[in-house]
Specification:
mainly alpha
Length: about 190
């Protein structure tokens, strides 16, 4: 049963003077209603109970500033609404922060994984180049590592430019085939 305005005013007046019985009566009067109000925003009772406790802690801490002639119900619902909104903001930040952290972890994991795979391909490529016939290996290294043109390689080695092109074609074909088969085995 709801108290009349005058009895609520008396309870608020007593509360403002530090009367714990008045506090208890106001708690008993409004806690279930506030619980229903706050629970519509949260999925579980534990979070809702935490908010209700925060509301009544705030009421107790601000009891000396209470104005008995103003609506206590409006006052307490405003506190509940603000506490609920603050809690929802914190949850959103925590979730967002957690999601961002998880995304960063996933990116870091993928980068590390890519670095490992790349290092494996680099090693495999170096091994393949080392297995090429000596002249083909030299032509490949002059072209790819030193950046010489086919004409410059031909002049330096004293062979025709066509020979350089044929040797590079064979070297690249060997590398492509071997790396393709490596890609197939690592992707399965």
């Amino acid at each position: 049963m709801l108290p009349t305005i005058t009895s609520e005013e008396k309870l608020v007046n007593r509360l403002s003077e530090g009367d714990t019985d008045a506090f208890r009566k106001l708690f008993d009067l409004y806690s279930n209603k506030l619980f229903c109000f706050v629970r519509t925003y949260f999925g579980n009772d534990e979070q809702t109970q935490d908010i209700i406790q925060e509301v009544f802690i705030t009421v107790w801490e601000q009891r000396k500033q209470l104005n008995p002639s103003l609506s206590f119900q409006a006052y307490i619902y405003k506190i509940a609404k603000n506490k609920t909104l603050n809690a929802l903001r914190r949850l959103a930040i925590e979730r967002t922060g957690s999601e961002v952290w998880q995304q960063q972890q996933n990116i870091a994991h993928r980068e590390t994984e890519h670095q490992i795979v790349y290092a494996d391909y680099e090693k495999h490529t170096a091994d393949l180049i080392a297995q090429l016939p000596p002249k083909r290996q030299l032509i490949y290294q002059l072209s790819r590592h030193q950046g010489l043109t086919y004409r410059e390689i031909a002049q330096q080695l004293g062979v025709s430019q066509n020979t350089v092109e044929v040797q590079m074609t064979k070297a690249l074909k060997t590398l492509r085939q071997s790396l393709a088969s490596l890609l197939e085995t690592t992707s399965h």
